[in-house]
Amino acid sequence: MRVSTTRLEKEDAKIIYQETAGLAIITISRPQAKNALTAHMWDELRIIALQALDNPKNKVLLIRGYGQQFTAGSDIKEFNSISLEESEEAFIHMEKTISTIEHLPIPTIAVINGPAMGAGLELALACDIRVGSDKAKLGIPVGKLGITLNNKFAARLVNLVGPSMTKDLVYTGRLLKTDEAYRVGILNYITQEKDLDRYAIRLGKLVASMSPASVLAVKKSVQECVDSAPVLWKSSTPFVDPHDFPEGVRAFVEKRTPQFKRLP
């Protein structure tokens, strides 16, 4: 087994990379912040995910979170200390990483033990298959933060759960527990927490045993179907609302209810 660790911050934040038996495994580890990713960590995650392609023995990539978390997504507290323009740039880097993982030319599996929130949910949706434990919770509570979803973000949910459920999750900010996430199609497989890693590795090995030609052909064909929709939002469309986003972030840091202004 090959193991490497990239330490990213002064605090205990790192991305662990392992290779074993045809599987590449990435573990996001920042336990003191629910595995939330800073802008720098998003960049490193993209670099490490691409690293999996350097070894032709790697047939499948698994992405997991350390402990009882997948990832809370982007680090909201970081946005409270940077400008609106820097926040927008951080979201662009985040989307670049998620899109890179979405289009990797090998199968990808998200292993979800605990919350997968916001951009963390999007990261899970970018993977081909999602396995969740009985501790999994999934949601995209961007309405509490003034984050605006472009159609690329929304499409990942719409393709799985449909338009109404996508709007429901954003309108209400509610979280789906394991059983409901499985029922609506976000999770492909569910298992007990104690069995999650073993289950995911067994699934990864099963996928790795299939014909590479068949697996990669269906991945490419499905992606072409998904990408056939016209791109309605341009890259200049902001991820963050200039009024609601600063208030949403401040409210998050101050642990209070945000006071959003009504649209004119």
Explain the layout of strands and helices.
Blueprint: E1 2-7, E2 14-20, E3 23-29, H1 39-51, E4 60-65, H2 76-79, H3 84-102, E5 108-112, E6 115-117, H4 119-126, E7 129-133, E8 137-139, H5 151-161, H6 163-172, E9 176-177, H7 178-184, E10 189-191, H8 196-208, H9 212-226, H10 244-254
Parallel strand pairs: 3-4, 4-5, 5-7, 6-8, 7-10
Antiparallel strand pairs: 1-2, 2-3, 8-9
Helix pairs in contact: 1-3, 3-4, 5-6
What does this 3D model show about the protein?
- This protein is an alpha/beta fold and 264 residues long.
- The chain has a single domain (2-194, 212-216), classed as 2-enoyl-CoA Hydratase, Chain A, domain 1.
- Helices cover 42% and strands 18% of the residues.
- Helix 3 (84-102) packs parallel to helix 4.
Strand order, largest beta sheet: 1-2-3-4-5-7-10
Q: Write down the domain tally.
A: 1
The CATH architecture: Alpha-Beta Complex
CATH topology, which one? 2-enoyl-CoA Hydratase, Chain A, domain 1
CATH homologous group name: 2-enoyl-CoA Hydratase, Chain A, domain 1
Poorly predicted spans: none
Question: What is the count of β-strands?
Answer: 10
CATH class descriptor name: Alpha Beta
Helix-and-strand structural type: alpha/beta
Q: Judging from the principal axes of the Cα atoms, what is the shape?
A: globular
Gyration radius, in Å: 18 Å
Oligomer state equals: single chain
Mean pLDDT: 89
As a percent range, the share of strand residues is: 15-25%
Biggest sheet details: 7 strands, mixed
Distance between the termini: 58 Å
- Helical content class: 40-55%
Output the number of helix runs: 10
